[in-house]
Amino acid sequence: MNENDPWDSERSAPAPLPRSLWASISPPAPETRRATQDARVDVAIIGGGYTGLSTAIHLRQTGANVAVVEAAEAGWGASGRNGGQVIPGLKIDPDEIEAFVGGECGRRLVAWAGSAPDMVFSLIKQHEIDCSPVRNGWIQPAYTKVSLEIVASRCRQWQERGAPVEMLDPAQLPDMLGTSKYVGAWMDRRGGSINPMAYSRGLARAALAAGAKIYTATPVQKLERQGAVWKVITPSATFTADHVVVATGAYCNDLVPGLKRTIIPTRIGEVATKPLSHNILAKILPGRQLASDWRRLLASFRITPDGRLMMGGSTATAGPETTKIRDSLHRAARDLFGHYGEFEWDFFWSGVFAVTPDKLPHLHEPHPHLIAALGCNGRGIAISTAMGKVLAERIRGASDEELVLPVSRLAPMHFYFLRRPVVDFLIKVKGVQDKFDRART
Ligand SMILES: Cc1cc2nc3c(=O)[nH]c(=O)nc-3n(C[C@H](O)[C@H](O)[C@H](O)COP(=O)(O)OP(=O)(O)OC[C@H]3O[C@@H](n4cnc5c(N)ncnc54)[C@H](O)[C@@H]3O)c2cc1C
Prior knowledge:
Helices cover about 30% and strands about 25% of the residues. The protein has about 450 residues and is of the alpha+beta class. It folds into two domains: about 5-80 and about 195-265 and about 360-410, FAD/NAD(P)-binding domain (3-Layer(bba) Sandwich), CATH 3.50.50.60; about 140-190 and about 265-355 and about 435-440, 2-Layer Sandwich (D-Amino Acid Oxidase, Chain A, domain 2). Flavin-adenine dinucleotide (FAD) binds near residues 52, 84, 268, 379 and 384.
């Protein structure tokens, strides 16, 4: 079975969820079924992650007849596997985005990305989603002197735009983080944490309550343009739709020719300990902020709603192998928190997220009334949720000028078959650069 494929063709069944902490502690998914009858809809949305579900919720506000068609179950992809860190902004800094995109469009994009967590937390509130939201801020500590300059510049750029951010006093960091490995940090109060699988399932419940249909265990195998409509073909039913949204994230396949070659599906992992003692819980992130540090191979950490240390990042691959990822996360935990003793690990899982060459999320319209959105570059909780609203606006007729994200040409990467060795090589180089910077610090 292909690790990145939500549909197990050999068994003619959805691929199971990975054994993750989130799968074991989240409230059950709402009841949904496989599609068994052909249907006529205004909009067929392929993929039941944050992008697809948020699009459905926003489209229902104008009464569109919407079907979400998901190969496995809501949250099966990155949306149910991530670190639950709701982080404002994009992967690149505000000044760089404004220079790259230019003028008013750049400023709008920065403001949109900075406020994207607001949409997550307000949807949670509005739909009473039971996903353990905590909005106490996101801390980005610097592991080296080089990275301290970078985070200080990032903090300054957001301050200039009036965001609630600040540099933290280095002397207070050991008490705030529970480790003395960092040389400085900034905090962005717009960030927070959630249980990401519970959020996915809550969005699915909200979409159903708003009147959307959600079909699970229903892989879309083919898209066909017939006259003015699209045929969305699955093994058990065909949807006829005026519009199609492709919201398959990094799990995209060949439904839209060339789409999967616009991103590198990058595998990262998460580990979670057994529940920790009260003593240790009072030491690691006692303010219950979340943290992801600045290094080329970043480490992220947080305390989970059931009192575990969870760590993510640290290394990545474009292939299926996971042992190196797990071992690297255990090493990162020992490096930061080894002074509390050896941790007992309960969970390890992994998933893929979409990296784009320009590190920006992409909207593509390769055919009339067919729109694809992907490429959140690891910032997908907030950005994918916000992108759902943008997609709904486009379908309702928003012009290019009105859209906060530009619609760009679908540009498949050349030499895509080399992605695995190239990513492995880059990861090695980044690891060496991080070690070098640390040695200098
Ligand atoms: C391990 C990990 C940790 C991460 N940590 C964070 C974090 O802490 N903070 C953050 O902001 N972001 C994080 N991310 C990124 C974030 O999870 C993603 O950007 C976001 O979930 C993408 O949502 P999506 O809806 O676009 O895609 P997905 O959630 O991947 O959903 C795509 C869906 O499409 C379905 N699908 C695919 N093909 C078909 C088909 N042919 N027919 C029907 N359905 C199909 C899949 O089954 C899947 O459910 C992380 C990602 C990973 C993998």
